[in-house]
Automatic annotation (TrEMBL):
This is tRNA pseudouridine synthase B. Residues 178-221 form the tRNA pseudouridylate synthase B C-terminal domain. It comes from Nonomuraea longicatena. SUPFAM superfamilies: Pseudouridine synthase, PUA domain-like. Gene3D superfamilies: Pseudouridine synthase, PUA domain.
């Protein structure tokens, strides 16, 4: 059996997240592989892949904060809100002032209501929105609450009628950078779309920990499941008796660590479970022994 843990992949462009999972199944020698947080084919960067028991962590890891480097092109609207879609219209943007761009970015920072792209994996009446959109249907998606913790412009380049805005975005789970590009352009009255996206961090896992597909084929580096949990979540270490209770799915007294998953480790340092506090109890979410 393959070791349980995480593989931090530096996803290449043109690969789907599913492509990466398929490759990692062959590399790790197991079918029990999944990923946390989809990256579009155009995007590159950190994709967290779980192997064996660590697949049970992925839903929790997908909810952590993410950081991206992005380039937004002002002056061109597309059907997908990124460079892979059809051009829907152009508006000269060369006259847009830096002050206006900064004001637009500020308006998209903090808690916001965001409409996802029509071409997204969100389900509408049981079917993925992108399938309906590609079939020619005009898909209307409801705005969702997300939080953009930071939206920092790092460079602005004017190319005749279009303007490229480089930015670093730090955001909550569920935030679409394509939608930020669209909304920034719409707010400035010139339209916009995403031309470049690289995810640099998912929770505590960043590019310094990531390996390319080629590197992983040569040497598959798996972050052990205990280390993965310690890096991502608060931890508590329990006694032998408490370990026995947790190992059978029982509850412990709350540790006062607040909301969110907590790693529970035995006296020998081995990961026992992922748990959450509910009232005065610490309730297991997933048991690993």
């Amino acid at each position: 059996m393959a070791e349980s843990g995480l593989i931090i992949v530096d996803k290449p462009a043109e690969w789907t997240s599913h492509d990466v999972v398929g490759k990692m199944r062959r590399v790790a020698g197991t079918r029990r592989v999944g990923h946390a947080g989809t990256l579009d084919p155009m995007a590159t960067g950190v994709l967290v892949v779980g192997v064996e028991k660590a697949t049970r962590l992925l839903g929790h890891l997908a909810l952590t904060e993410k950081v991206y480097e992005a380039t937004i092109r002002l002056g061109v609207r597309t059907s997908t809100d990124d460079a892979e879609g059809e051009v829907l219209g152009t508006t000269p943007a060369g006259q847009v002032a830096m002050e206006a761009i900064q004001a637009g970015v500020a308006g998209l920072t903090g808690p916001i209501m965001q409409v996802p792209p029509q071409v997204s994996a969100i389900k509408v009446n049981g079917e993925r929105a992108y399938k309906r959109a590609r079939a020619g249907e005009d898909v209307e998606l409801a705005a969702r609450p997300v939080t953009v913790h930071g939206f920092d412009v790092t460079d602005v380049r004017v190319h005749d009628d279009v303007v490229d805005v480089d930015a670093t975005v730090r955001c909550s789970s569920g935030t679409y950078i394509r939608s930020l590009a669209r909304d920034l352009g719409d707010g400035l009255g010139v339209g916009g779309h995403l031309t470049y996206l690289r995810r640099t961090r998912v929770g505590p896992y960043d590019l310094s920990m990531a390996r390319t597909i080629e590197q992983l084929v040569d040497s598959c580096v798996i972050l052990p499941i205990g280390e993965a949990v310690s890096a991502a979540f608060p931890r508590i270490d329990v006694t032998d008796e408490q370990a026995r209770v947790v190992s059978h799915g029982g509850r412990l007294a709350a540790a006062g660590l607040g909301a969110g998953p907590i790693g529970v480790f035995g006296p020998d340092g081995a990961l026992l479970a992922l748990a959450e506090e509910s009232g005065r109890a610490l309730k297991p979410l997933a048991v690993f022994v």
